[in-house]
Structures are given as C-alpha cells and as structure tokens.
Amino acid sequence: MATANGPTASEYIVHHLTHLNTSGHKQEAIVDWSVVNLDTLFWSLALGLLTVFLLARAARRATPGVPGRFQAAVEFVVEMVADQAKGIVHSAESRRFVAPLALTVFVWIFLMNAMDLLPLDLLPRIWEGIYAAAGNDPHHAYLRIVPTADLNATLGMSIGVLLLCFYYNIKIKGLGGWVHELFTAPFGSHPLLYPVNFLMQMIEFAAKTISHGMRLFGNMYAGELLFMLIALMGAAWAGTATGAFLWIGHVIAGAAWAIFHILIITLQAFIFMMLTLVYIGQAHEGH
Predict the structure, then answer these.
(1) Is 215 a catalytic residue?
(2) What are 178-219's pLDDT values in tens digits?
(3) Model pTM score
(4) Scanning 82, 122, 148, 235, which has the fewest C-beta atoms within 10 Å of its C-beta?
C-alpha cells in the first residue's frame, strides 16, 4: 500500500536489502563480482577487530582463581572448541593453528549474526542522517549491517576454508600424494577411472564450499527478512483499532522472534565452525 509520507512496503524492504556498494546504485544480483559491498566489508572488518580485541582481553586478564563472568564465558567457548578440534583433527601440530582458527571463526560469525538483533532502522537511519548532512539524497543512503546475510561474505569465508583444505592436503600427503589421490579416489587406481575420480573430487570440493557458505547466508538472510516483515506490522499504525492491534502484534512477534533468533545466530556460528573443523580434518585423511 502506497503512502503519502513514506515508502510502500515493497519499497521499504527493497531499500533495506540494498547494499552500500562501489557502483552507487542498487545491486541487481545477490552475487555481483563487479562491485564491492562496502557495508559488508566495513562491518566484517569492524567485528573481526572486535573479536580479536575480546579474545586478547580475555587472555590478558585470565587469572588462576575464581573467574569472572566474562572469563568464564570465554573459557567455556575455548574448551568447547578445543574438545571439538581434538575429536576431529587428530594432528596435535595442526590443532595448534586450527583450534584458535575455529575459535575465532565461531566468535566472529556469532558477532556478525548478532547484528541482526539491533533495531532494524537504528543504524540505517543514522547513516541516512550522515548522508543527508553531506548534501546527498537520503533516499539513496543504503546500509546493511549483517555481513552474514550477504552471500559474497559467506562464500568468501567458505572459499577461505577450501584454500586451507588444499594447504593441509598438500602438507600432510605431499603434492604428489594429493594429486595421486585426486585421480585414484574414490573408485580405484585404473587409467579409465582417472577422469571420473577427478571429476568426483572436484564436485565434492565445490559442493562442500557452496553449501558451507549458502547455509549460513540462507538462514541469516531469512531472519533479516522476517525482522523487516515484522517491522512493517508496526508501521501499519494509523490511529485505528486495526493499526493498534498490528502494532501490538509487531511488538510481541518482534520480541518472540528476537529471542528465538538468539538460538539461530548461535547455532549457525557453531555449524560453520564445526564444518570448518570437519573439512580440515578430512584433508588430513586419505580416501
């Protein structure tokens, strides 16, 4: 429904789903390699630095006595990740790098996912004010604050995991051993089977990488979209009884979804971290 003082519901959602990017206009595709989503880049880096700061602070302030709440929470996460890494990656030497990596991935993705819990219009409205103060049209002030709701970001992280898998395959098996495995597994060492084996290996790597990134993106994108739909219920207030009921429903639905969403953002961070460990662990094993 169009309004005289504001955007329609579809315009509101489209505006919130548009990235601040280097092209200066609306992004037509979910993945567009010709532009850089500046908002995703900014919030990813900012939350990555926050992750490093929090973990470094916890390490500096760790005491052997009774821990405080912050130290206890960090120790719980560290022990959880260390136990998972020990059960999946059997090389103690590799775990010295992989376990801290998994810890960083979990905390980083959790913080990026948690941006979805901020009021939907809070940071975009602030950005619109800054944009307007610079003499620009605020209607073109696009800003998305959940990096994991951008497929470019989640695929970028999954490709990073893929490169680590390549590295450990070569490190553990040697370049020659890994190439031999690519052409002889899973169906056996026979010249006629070499092309089939290699194709199956490439399909496996591609499927793991794409599903790794798509799973996180899909859940966070859907959650972000649902917050927008709930916000539109609140925007229906127009001094009428129906509008009042919709506004009350928006408050109740928003609170309920936010509470449930805490589980989702934690679970998605855990799943991405676990799959990172599993894929790197598989790189240590032969077919």
Answers:
(1) yes
(2) 999 999 999 998 899 999 999 999 999 999 999 999 999 999
(3) 0.91
(4) 122
Tokens for 117, please give them.
Answer: 């819990």
Q: Does 56 reside within a domain?
A: yes
Q: How far apart are CA 133 and CA 228, in angstroms?
A: 26
Choose, from 10, 23, 136, 211, the residue flagged as catalytic.
211
Per-residue pLDDT averaged across 253-281, rounded?
A: 95
pLDDT at 162 over 70: yes
DSSP 32: -
Catalytic residue among 21, 113, 169, 219: 219
Choose from 3-12, 122-131, 195-204, 235-244 the range with maximum mean pLDDT.
Answer: 195-204
Which two tokens mark 175?
């370049």
Residues 167-179: what's their mean pLDDT? Answer: 95
Residue 197 catalytic? no
Q: Is 23 a catalytic residue?
A: no
| Rounded alpha-carbon distances, angstroms, from residue 160 to 89, 165, 280 | 18, 9, 11
Burial 117-141 (b: 16+ CB within 10 A, else e): eeebeebbeebbeebeeeeeeeeeb
**What pLDDT score was predicted for residue 63?**
82
Domain total of the chain: 1
Percent of residues, the chain, with pLDDT higher than 90: 66
Residue 17 falls within a domain, yes or no? yes
CA angle 220, 125, 229 (to 5 degrees): 40
Structural domain contains residue 1: no
Expressed as residue numbers, the domain containing 222 is: 9-283
CA distance 42 to 203: 33
Q: Is the CA virtual torsion 43, 106, 75, 55 positive or negative?
A: negative
Q: Is residue 41 part of a domain?
A: yes
- In DSSP notation, 63-77 reads -SSS--HHHHHHHHH
Token couple for 36: 């850089």
Pull the structure tokens for residue 122. Answer: 């809070």
